[in-house]
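QA checklist item 7 of 12: single-chain prediction sanity check.
[x] sequence parsed
[x] length recorded as 229
[x] structure emitted
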Amino acid sequence: MTQTPPITVLLVDDQPLLRMGFRLILEGEDDLRIVGEASDGAEAVRQVRELTPDVVLMDVRMPVLDGIEATRAITAAGSAARVIILTTFDVDEYAFAGLQAGASAFLLKDVAPAELIQAVRVVASGDAVVAPRVTQRLLETYVRGEARPAASTQRDPLLEDLTPRETEMLEAMAEGLSNAEIAHRYFLSEATVKTHVRRILTKLHLRDRVQAVVYAYETGLVVPSNPDY
């Protein structure tokens, strides 16, 4: 029987105590392995190139190169590493900038250990995760500001390639619904929803479902139901 290799993780934070805390949490799991640590974004970019981790836990505010620019550099280099942005605040402009830069997830630093472990596993599997309790607030805060002009621009022609069902799926994803919740809403199996999601990502040339959510808001496909939210 072939044993599945462990998920390799790079820890990036300028505070040694936080890196130690995350290490203690993650190293307690048989399927997770810490392969390195970095204290700034430039060092993180180098280590991603050398160590090829599966997942990077990336702080936002760091010296030399911040987590946003480091994430952008990692993504631009074509790395297969998935980045999880870690931030302190519920609604943080840097968190959304991290998602725009190519991060696959956004979590608060005070995340429960079990939630952190699950997030690493989910992101490594190719799915993305955004802290459910802050997703909508983060996105709608962004839409009220920087993204609002995008809503008034011409509709992206790529959207025309989506079927009506795929458009519904994209809108549901932008609401922050999981595959299971989407399946329940539209009376579909989760396998069918996953197939739709894969097709949407392929047609829109997107990396993962978080990028799809960002896209839906930036193109104006989804707008806040209540501007004064």
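[x] summary fact logged: Residues 147-152 have pLDDT under 50 and may be disordered.
[ ] second reviewer sign-off
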